[in-house]
Every structure is written in C-alpha cells, then in structure tokens.
Amino acid sequence: MAKYSRSAGKDVERAMDRRKKGKLKRGKGGKGGTVKSRKQAIAIGLSEARKKGKKVPRKAVKKKKGKKTKKKKS
Fold first, then answer.
1. Taking 80 as the threshold, does the pLDDT of residue 68 lie above it?
2. In this structure, is residue 64 part of a structural domain?
C-alpha cells in the first residue's frame, strides 16, 4: 500500500517548482523570506497536502527525554 497519494506528490512537485522560481516563501503568511532548501520545499508541499486532507503520513514527533535523577550516596 502506498504511503502518499498521487495528488500529494503533485503538491510537492508544485512546491518544488515554486522554489525554483523563487516564489516559495517560508514562515506564517510567507513573511520569512524565500525558501532555498530542497528539504524545506518538500516539507512545505507535504504540509499543504495535509491541509487539503490528502493521504500523507503524520508528522514524526520526537520523544522527549526525561530528566535523570541522581542517586544519593549513603
């Protein structure tokens, strides 16, 4: 079974084209300047596909490390 739908791939492709033309912007509302990174362009394309409700896996969530407690010496 495919992880990503074809239409999600098209969204990523569109984002890559916008990056090449210098039209892809980063940040909320596109206020953070143009995207230079290929990886970031892919991430933006996948994010847009998720918002449209297309078949894309969830974002990976990093596990938080808990604080280690020191043992008291007796």
1. no
2. no
